[in-house]
Amino acid sequence: MWRRVPCLLCVFLVKLKRPIIVALIMFRRKNQSHSEQEGEDKQHKVKELRASLGQLSGRSAQYCTDACLKRYLEARNWNVDKSKKMLEETLKWRSSFKPEEIRWHEVATEGETGKVYKANFHDRYGRTVLILRPGMQNTSALDNQMKHLVYLIENAIFNLPEGQEQMAWLIDFTGWSITNNVPVKSARETINILQNHYPERLAVAFLYSPPRIFEAFWKIVKYFMDPKTAQKVKFVYPKNKDSVELMKSYFDMDNLATEFGGTATLNYDHEEFSRQMAQDDVKAAKFWGLDKHAPGVNGYSAAEVAPESKSIALPATARV
């Protein structure tokens, strides 16, 4: 009799668990079904947006991939009409600004101090990383500064690994002061270009150890930002434990420069970086179908790929 008790108990437990298991299966199926339906709805929105744009040609057609349309829809909470307006504004801007035609030799002077450049490592999610050092500002012409920034944004996107659509920004405030700070007009134009013409391209922006006086400047700048963009901006302080852990969650500390709490050395080499950009210019020209007419870049013709560059800012062991 006593030997039968455990067996009876097992049967009871199995019967007790059965409704729970069934409920879990039903819940999983319901979520899966909901996810599939949501995916179908979004795909329908993409088709609807594409149809609303009408017949596209040339670079506009090349630019408006399904992935591109999804980013604009995401930026406007999947509202087709608002997404269309936003995308049409971008196509108009690209037609005028011609970001795909900018070549490094046109903006190289802006980059001499390394105030903005692409790091030779990715974050833990495989994103391209742009390093910005506002304290290294070396020019005063806003148009050229924006042209330089747009060139590097395009380059960062061009160098994204397959399956990754976003980049990360690391902003180093070393040398930044109220006397050499970025003018509000420049900051406003940067925000306008980034959030209106490159929606969902920025994953996160780290403002590393900004001085207290920057807080007043930030309050003005934040006014021009979309709430979704503002949420991607993270203030990071080296002596704050949560900030340190946040950086570790995004970056390999062996890749990250000491200016950002890592162990590597930040040493921008303008000549080496220029050689890398010359290589990328050739590839970008080919991608956009401009290679037959691409001008010489830093001594290299469109048909001649520059020699492989060495490490730009961090040790050769850094992940590229």
From TrEMBL:
Superkingdom: Eukaryota
Leader peptide range in chain numbering: none
UniProt domain CRAL-TRIO: residue ranges: 104-268
Entry's Gene Ontology molecular function annotations: phosphatidylinositol transfer activity
SMART domains, per database record: CRAL_TRIO_N (SM01100), SEC14 (SM00516)
Pfam families linked: CRAL_TRIO, CRAL_TRIO_N
The protein, known as: CRAL-TRIO domain-containing protein
Upper classification of the organism: Eukaryota, Viridiplantae, Streptophyta, Embryophyta, Tracheophyta
